[in-house]
């Protein structure tokens, strides 16, 4: 997990949370004031835990703050549900391409999640065509990330330039607030031109072909520097390598698109899925049921909570840590 090289304001916070493996921890952390934006609909801040480990905390604001607490709690609950599943599927070899859940508290006064500090910069801030030597690394890594999600039975549903970061070597897919399990029903979500047509319309059930479409759209952006049209790019005027790589990716039906492993073989690159442990733990199933019950109680309590305290005044000319878009550009539904 990355460590911070720059000091944060001395805002001390007592944290009590549960880890994905069930352990409970209590820390006093230092961090920033709340910020809204950075590609997530949930207010967030950076925290430093004891030992210098940096994490990102995202919370559900109380009534009279931005957004609907009930709706935002659903997003946070989904972050926990998907984050725990990924942690349980990859307990010893967590894929570098996926954001990792550190802990959560959904029953406290201010429900929150903790994720490992993001790596790299969002593709939206990098902008345009990547240098040729970076294009291959980006392409391989984004496909490895989609393969890791597929192997775990997860459909992200919102892979786009704001939820994909790149450090020049490896991507990181983050923000699971709009994710679903393969085969689950879903509503409309994502944003054109990066979301597939069926994802935008909410047709059918969650399918990994939607994430493949999104990954293909980002590969096209990183290779050409152009946003693809919502119906998928016309590849006839591009290089033979790009045409061969993305052949079939933008088919109308998700079942007609190639497998992620097939695209990795076209590069060519290692198409072996990451090792994932099976989910056959009765205790985990019971814990999921308890979590659902606690989440329902928390939804009911949010309506009577007090507003989130106003943040402390910021120092002159602050340097925002995320480097992303403004909050007005970041509001969106899953």
From TrEMBL:
Organism domain of life: Bacteria
Region described as Disordered: 182-208, 303-334
GO biological process: intracellular signal transduction
GO function term, MF aspect, one: ATP binding
Residue span, Protein kinase domain: 30-291
GO cellular component terms, A-Z: cytoplasm
Presence of keyword ATP-binding: yes
KW DNA-binding (keyword) present: no
UniProt keywords, alphabetically: ATP-binding, Nucleotide-binding
Alphabetical list of InterPro entries matching this protein: Kinase-like_dom_sf, Prot_kinase_dom
Composition skew (Pro residues), residue ranges: 308-318
SUPFAM superfamilies: Protein kinase-like (PK-like)
Name of this chain's protein: Protein kinase domain-containing protein
Organism: Virgisporangium aliadipatigenens
């Amino acid at each position: 997990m990355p460590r911070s090289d720059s000091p944060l304001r001395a805002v001390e916070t007592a944290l009590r949370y549960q880890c994905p493996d069930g352990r409970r921890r209590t820390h006093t952390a230092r961090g920033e004031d709340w910020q809204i934006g950075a590609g997530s609909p949930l207010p967030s801040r950076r925290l430093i835990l004891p030992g210098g480990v940096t994490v990102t905390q995202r919370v559900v604001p109380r009534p009279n703050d931005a957004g609907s607490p009930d709706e935002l709690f659903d997003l946070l609950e989904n972050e926990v549900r998907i984050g725990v599943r990924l942690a349980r599927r990859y307990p010893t070899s967590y894929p570098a391409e996926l954001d990792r859940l550190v802990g959560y508290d959904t029953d406290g006064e201010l429900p929150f999640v903790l994720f490992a500090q993001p790596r790299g910069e969002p593709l939206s801030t990098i902008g345009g065509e990547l240098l040729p030597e970076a294009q291959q690394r980006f392409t391989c890594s984004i496909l490895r990330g989609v393969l890791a999600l597929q192997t775990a039975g997860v459909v992200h549903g919102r892979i786009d330039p704001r939820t994909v970061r790149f450090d020049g070597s490896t991507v990181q897919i983050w923000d699971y607030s709009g994710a679903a399990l393969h085969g689950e029903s879903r509503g409309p979500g994502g944003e054109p031109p990066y979301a597939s047509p069926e994802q935008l319309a909410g047709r059918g059930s969650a399918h990994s072909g939607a994430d493949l479409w999104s990954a293909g759209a980002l590969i096209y952006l990183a290779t050409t520097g152009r946003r693809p049209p919502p119906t998928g790019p016309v590849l006839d005027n591009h290089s033979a390598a790009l045409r061969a790589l993305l052949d079939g990716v933008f088919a109308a039906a998700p079942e007609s698109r190639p497998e992620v492993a097939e695209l990795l073989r076209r590069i060519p690159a290692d198409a072996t899925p990451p090792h994932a442990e099976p989910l056959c733990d009765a205790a985990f199933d019971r814990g999921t049921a308890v979590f659902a019950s606690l989440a329902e109680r928390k939804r009911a309590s949010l309506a009577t909570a007090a507003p989130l305290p106003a943040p402390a005044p910021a120092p002159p000319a602050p340097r925002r840590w995320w480097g992303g878009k403004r909050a007005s550009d970041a509001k969106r539904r899953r």
